[in-house]
Amino acid sequence: MRSISKLLIAAFTALGVSLVFAQQLPGPIVTADWLAANQAQVQLVDVRSDTKSYSRQSVTSVEKKTGKVQVEEVGGVIPGALLVDYALVRSEKLFDGQKTKYLIPDREELESRLRAAGLRSDKPIVIAALGLDPSDVVEALRLYWTLKVFGEDRVAVLDGGSAGWLVSGRVLQPAGVAPPAPGNWATKGYRATLIAGSADVEQASKSSRPQLIDGRESAAFYGLAKRSYVNQYGHIANAKSLPPELMFRSVQGAQYFLTRAQYQTLAKLLGVDATAPAISYCNSGNLASGAWFVFSELLGNANVRLYDGSLYLWSREGRPLVGVL
Length: 325
What we know:
The protein has 325 residues and is of the alpha/beta class. It is built from ten helices and 16 strands. The strands form five sheets. The protein has a five-stranded parallel beta sheet with strand order 1-9-8-2-5. A five-stranded parallel beta sheet has the order 10-16-15-11-12, sandwiched between helices. The protein has a two-stranded antiparallel sheet with strand order 3-4.
């Protein structure tokens, strides 16, 4: 029996595959406890916009009544994490003769950027967000969606992010200044079925098939606020709202996902059919990754697309929005 095991190990090694890394991730979400027990078998990627926080100290307080740690500010990273500036997760491209921001990178761009961060192909990937705010969480989800588009299936998100790591009683440390060893991560295909374009969204708006899900804050959906790069107030006609303030729950300062049953109930209350084809959008394709992740990865809807560029692209093309208030 031992000789057979040795032969199998030798065979996998010759193919460049490790038996240890054949372990499956438990799902699209992993807990801090799971990561602590399995970190040697995965590669942890910390993605955030606030890159200055990599070198700051965390700020926590203790609730007098419960003695629980409350995270006020996240500084540093989970030891061993690879660092990815969120600005590198999206790209500016020439689109219909115009330079257009916030789009998914080309294959060569993505491979180059993630390899520079040290990402390899021989281990599953766990993505950690800053985790203090829904806008932090969706940065991890946008990277998750991007990896899925390019055929990467061994990927999960850390529930609670770095803030949740602190809540669990563990520590963060300042990021190192030395660059990591270059990685060899490569794309494994291209899933155009995960991406929607403006024509797809226009058709959905007219027919309500597939359904449109607006992932922005309620104030933006109802026409009370907007981003500077979106030239109108309101939302795309016939869209349903799934605001980020309802998408996660805050525990001791960290953002956590709801349960599957809670998401199903929330979808029903908001008038969204969790099983029907859908397209998610937001201002630039960032918050939309939250709605995409919930319906596609957590509720198992295989026909959910994300509108890359979202209202930034929609408004540049002169397409209309409708207001409510």
